[in-house]
Specification:
With 214 residues, this protein is α+β, with helices and mostly antiparallel strands. The protein has helices at residues 2-29, 63-74, 111-114, 125-128, 184-191, and strands at residues 43-48, 51-57, 81-87, 101-105, 136-139, 151-154, 175-182, 195-196, 199-211. The radius of gyration is 23 Å and the shape is globular.
Length: 214
């Protein structure tokens, strides 16, 4: 009798353990149920109507760029800004080097504010080691050292944006400073929105960019 009770209790514990394991497995495989990932670097969330884009930033590799970008986020400058530009195969001149990206910032939504931004020291890929691969976020600029608030996300590997690349005549490339870790499907969806002469019609609103609390 005692042996039967012991076996029943033992079997109950085993059954309960397996139920817990199965429950956790199913929960973690469902969207929104997985345990939050931990990152060693700051992560920001770009919020759009198509979903969120999580971007890990690399302050050890691009300190000036990351510091300025985070300061702009903390100041609330990116609330209700937009992705306004897109480069695709179907909107670039045939026979020339093509780029594949979406570009955003406050240039179109709040140009007066953009004039108040201080330029960021240029951190080329030869210095940072962050190459322009699919999912890389980088600063838009005119001359080296003129980047302020505008940024772009690569849809494909773009070696022409790296130091010594062919996409800019000065050869200094662009300042990459992070990489998309979640939400490339959102980037893709934005990328395929209607455009006219490389301008989204209408622009895709960025509701806000915020730091992810880790």
């Amino acid at each position: 009798m005692i042996s039967s009770i012991f076996n029943f209790s033992r079997n109950s514990r085993i059954f309960s353990t397996w139920c817990l394991i199965i429950t956790l497995y199913w929960c973690w495989t469902l969207p929104g149920c997985s345990p939050p990932k931990k990152y060693n670097n700051p992560v920001v969330v770009i919020e759009t109507k198509f979903g969120n884009i999580k971007v890990e930033l690399f302050p050890a590799k691009a300190p000036a760029t990351v510091s300025a970008f985070l300061q702009n986020i903390d100041s609330g400058y990116f609330k209700n800004c937009s992705f306004y530009r897109v480069l695709r195969n179907d909107n670039q001149v045939t026979g020339y080097l093509h780029s594949h990206l979406i570009q955003g910032g406050i240039w179109q939504s709040n140009p007066a504010l953009k004039k108040k931004f201080k330029p960021i020291s240029h951190e080329p890929t030869s210095q940072s080691g962050i190459l322009h691969t699919r999912g890389t976020i980088s600063m838009a600029r005119n001359e080296p050292g003129t980047a302020t608030s505008e940024f772009f996300i690569c849809l494909e590997d773009e070696p022409g944006f790296d130091f010594g690349g062919q996409n800019n005549p000065d050869g200094a490339g662009y300042a990459a400073f992070g990489n998309v870790v979640e939400g490339m499907d959102v980037v893709e969806r934005i990328y395929h929105q209607p455009e006219d002469q490389q301008q989204f019609t209408p622009p895709v609103t960025i509701l806000n960019i915020e730091r992810l609390q880790q």
